[in-house]
Amino acid sequence: MYLLISIAKIKILSNITYINFYYFRCDIHILIVFGSIVIIMTASLEKIGIKNNESLVIGIFQDNMEKSTWHYHNNFELSFILEGSGKRIVADSIEEFQPGDLVFIGRNLPHVWIADREIRTPTSRSLEMVFLQFTSEVVSPQLLLLPEFKYISKAIALSDRGIQIVGQTLNEVSELMLQLPYLKSFDRMLHFFKMMDIIGRSKTNVQLASKEYLKMRFTTGNKRIAVIHEYLMNNYREQIDLTKLAGLVNLAEGSLCRFFRMNMGMTVFEYLNQLKVELACKLLMDKDLSIFEVCLDSGFNNLSHFNKQFKKVNGLPPSEYRNRYKGLNQSP
Asked: What is the model's pTM?
């Protein structure tokens, strides 16, 4: 039934102006377990601009797989799939998605939709979704303490692990969501709060990230470590300049190396190789990329070094890793 709702609205939504956003790489480690294989991926921080006269960001993500990246951001996000199918990854949750898939994702929770390129869609696009994003200012703690916002507060709490919205709740929320682009100011905000209230009242929401994930996800209160992470993620394809990196954190080069090893248990370059391998794990999910292309895209200059570092981190070469993932992916 929900598919009828989305199909009825797709043609109208095609005239909406797309919202452009850009990516700023930062570091969060996510462990995703496939049987005996552990995929470690690093998310990029997506910075999203909100207009001064608006509190909500509403738009369409409409493109191919290359622009659907493993990322996180400081906003809450409600995403509704209009077109495309494939895998939806939210933290350590990996599930199939198809048109009509609706999820509510909390702040700083890494996620990506990996579209299946082999499945043809009416428009030949591999992925199209309507998304709504908002900051914590829209649902401030003071507001959530009001008795009328009891269920909205519950919805926000559920988003910490991400939720899939299903059943009658999906029908109600998706119908309201598809009206948002045509509403102005106050009416749009009223619809938004109504959607959040419906989500909070629902007894059918399916939580995505595991409780164990929330306990183990990477965090750091050390500003110097955060700066080093950021620099390495922005420059992983370049020759790393330790002198410049040391200057960014106001340390001598030798002090930087000792500081990093003490806090991370490895050298800067060992950590850099780990980040590159983590990215390679994600790229290997795309069967259309050759091993050599994955090697270059993940920042390695030659295949031999790539194979050596990949096996050092994962215990098996990239080709075998891909074959095992493919086998698990095809298992019933």
From this structure: 0.61
Enumerate the β-bridge partners of residue 90. 93, 111
R_g (Cα) of the chain, nearest Å: 21
- Is residue 250 domain-shared with residue 307, that is, in the same domain? yes
* Dist CA 70 CA 269 (whole Å): 23
d(CA 154, CA 28): 26
User: Could you tell me the two tokens for 44?
Assistant: 């990029």
C-beta of residue 299 within 8 angstroms of C-beta of residue 310: no
Q: Are strands 71-72 and 37-47 parallel, antiparallel or unpaired?
A: parallel
Are 152 and 196 in contact by the 8 Å Cβ rule? The answer is yes
List the structure tokens of 318. Answer: 């990239």
d(CA 156, CA 133): 13
Contact 195, 177 (CB under 8 A): yes
pLDDT digits (tens, 9 = 90+) for 278-320: 888 878 877 778 999 889 888 899 999 999 999 988 888 999 8
- What are the tens digits of pLDDT across the range 4-30? 222 222 232 333 322 222 222 233 333
HEC profile of 243-262: HHHHHHCCCCHHHHHHHHHH
For residue 73, what is the domain's CATH number? 2.60.120.10
Domain that holds residue 313: 220-330
Last residue of a domain, one of 183, 213, 243: 213
What the block records as the tokens of 291 is: 């091993």
Residue 63 sits in the same domain as residue 140: yes
* Spatial contact of 105 and 165, defined as CB atoms under 8 Å apart: no
